[in-house]
Amino acid sequence: MQFDPEKLREHYASLSDEALLDLDRKELVEVAQTLYDQELASRGLEGTEDAEEPDEPDELDEPVIAPRNRQDFERKDSEAKPPWLEEATVATSFRKFRGLDSVGPAEDARDALENAGIPCCLELYTEAVPAAPAQQQEEYRLMVPGHLILQAVSVLDKEVFNPQNDDRLSTYFETLSDDELRELDTEILVAGWLDRIDRLKKAYRKELAQRGLKPSPKL
Known about the structure:
This protein is mostly helical. Helices cover about 50% and strands about 10% of the residues.
């Protein structure tokens, strides 16, 4: 199962000040140390005296990526910005963490949209952290025209994010006993997704009717 930095960030945020300070920073992996330091800084707390100081930003803060990915991103980033970018919407984003490849997944998502014929643009966004100016948060944002956001999200779910959940689903089912597995109600299991599909179709057809247009045969 892949490491999820966002889950770890949420975990640290849920801890009390005392519980957070009780953690031994030296026992954490490098990415966890960065998240830990950011949570301390956001609360105005200081770690124990023997805690290591966070590394100054340098070239190591860049994700470990294949040269092909880096060159490809730089080529795309240097191209003329599309005219729709000023009113674009974020389809998804990938936060940069030291030692983790953020460019690769971001480019995979961009490629999925391009293959589906959806215009998109990958941008590097930097946000300053007021509580710790030296620690800036950066993320790759995949931008799409606002009117195509639902299509973009659907393509990304199918081609990028849903496959990443395969291991989680397998792990969940493996934890069930034979009786629990047999007693699962698959209709309830997918009811939320089916309801979302039904609501999307109804909203689409309602708007078509209000405009006096014929619905798409695909829906």
